[in-house]
Amino acid sequence: MKKQSREAKSPQPSVLNCIDLSNPDTNHNVTLLKQACIDSGFFYVVNHGISHGFMDEVFAQSKKLFTLPLHQKMKLLRNEKHRGYTPLLDELLDPQNQVVGDYKEGYYIGVEVTEDGPESQKPFYGPNVWPASDVLPEWKETMEKFQQEALDVGKAVARLIALALDLDANFFDKPEILGEPIAITRLLHYEDKISDPSQGVYGAGAHTDYGLITLLATDDVPGLQICKDRNAKPQIWEDVAPLKGAFIVNLGDMLERWSNCVFKSTLHRVLGNGQERYSIAYFLEPGHDCLVECLPTCKSDTNPPKFTPIYYRDYLSQRYKDTHADLHIYKH
User: Fold this and answer.
1) Distance between CA 107 and CA 162 in Å, rounded?
2) What PROSITE patterns does the database record attribute to this sequence (predicted)?
3) Which is deepest, 71, 86, 208, 235, by most CB within 10 Å?
C-alpha cells in the first residue's frame, strides 16, 4: 500500500463565483474573475453562447462512443499525438497516492491537421482518430462543431483574464498563443465504482491541469473536488456542484507560471460514488512555439520571476509522458 496523504474528512461544498458572459458590464466580470483566480482558480461560466440542446447532443454522442464494445474502442486507441481512445486505468495522475490508474476512460480530439501538413511534425499536432461514420454517424461533425464553439468561449474567458492581469484584452490572442493553440477536447466516462482515498482508489487522482484554462461540462452526477491549499495538513477538499448549462472553468499551470503565482492552478480530483459519470473537458493550451515567461504586469524589483522561461511544447510533452501509460503495453 502506498502512503496516503492526510486529508480532512467530509468535504464541504465549494462556493464559486459565476461569470455571465452575456453581461455587458465587463468590469464586474473582471472583478469576479480576478477574485476567483486568486482565491481558488475555479469559477463557473454561464450564458457562454453554446446552446443547451447542442451540449445535450455532444453528451449523447460521447455516450454512444463509450458504450461500444471494448474491442471496437481499442481500434481507436490513442496514438503518439495523443488523439483517440484512452482505456480504463490508462492515466495515473497522482502516483504518490494511487495504487492503480484512474477509473475512467477517455477520448482525445485535437485541432485537425493533415498528416502531410507542416504542423504534423510537431508534438500534439496531427490528424484525429475518428470512429467510422457507419458505426457512429454524425459523431465527427458534432465533435468538430464543439471544438470550434468551445474555442470561442475559451477566447472570451482569456480576454477577461488578460484584463484581470492588467494586460491588453487581446494579449492571449497573439498568433503564438491562441492564434494557433493546442486545443484538446477530452470526452470522459467514469466507471460506476466507489472511490476510496484511504485505499488509493480514485475516479481521477489529484492533479493540476497543464495549460491556460480548462472548460469542463459535466452531467448531473457529482464527483469533482478541489483543494485550495495543496500544502495544508490535513488537506481540505471541497465539492464542486454540477451546474446545468455552465462550464466549470479552472486555470492551468502555465497561467500560474505566466502570472508569477498571482493566479492559482488548483489541485482537483474526481471521487466516484457508485454512479456512472460523464464529463467533457476542453483544454485550451498555448501554441506549440509559445515561450511562457513572466508577464510584465506580474513582476517587479521586489517580486522577480519565480520560473525560468520555457517553450510550451517541452512542458506539455513531459507532463503527458509522466501521467500516461506507455503505448507499448497495448501492443500484442
Assistant:
1) 30
2) FE2OG_OXY (PS51471)
3) 86
Q: How far apart are CA 71 and CA 53, in angstroms?
A: 31
Identify the CA nearest to 218 among candidates 199, 194, 190, 244: 244
- DSSP class per residue in 271-313: --BSS-EEEEEEEEE--TT-EE---GGG--SSS--SS--EEHH
Integer CA distances (angstroms), 331 to 276, 293, 299, 327, in order: 29, 39, 48, 7
Give the strand pairing for 42-46 and 18-20. Answer: parallel
Q: How many CA atoms lie within 13 A of 162 on its CB side?
A: 16
User: CB–CB of 64/139 below 8 Å?
Assistant: yes
- What is the three-class DSSP state of 224? strand
Query: What is the rounded CA–CA span in Å between residue 320 and residue 327?
Result: 12
* Cα distances (Å, whole numbers) of residue 245 to 55, 113, 184, 240: 8, 30, 20, 15
pTM for this entry: 0.92
What are the structural domains, with CATH classification, of the chain? 12-326 (2.60.120.330)
pLDDT, tens only, 50-73: 999 999 999 999 999 999 999 999
Give the three-class secondary structure for 178. Answer: helix
Distance CA 69, CA 323 (A): 25
Class of residue 91 by CB neighbours under 10 A (exposed 0-12, middle 13-18, buried 19+): buried
Residue 311 CB partners (closer than 8 Å, separation 6+): 289, 290, 291, 292
| Placement of cell 467530509 in the chain | 10
pLDDT, tens digit (0-9, with 9 covering 90-100), for 194-206: 999 999 999 999 9
Q: Are 101 and 323 in contact (CB under 8 A)?
A: no
Q: Which residues contact 313 (CB under 8 A, 6 or more apart)?
A: 122, 123, 124, 288, 289
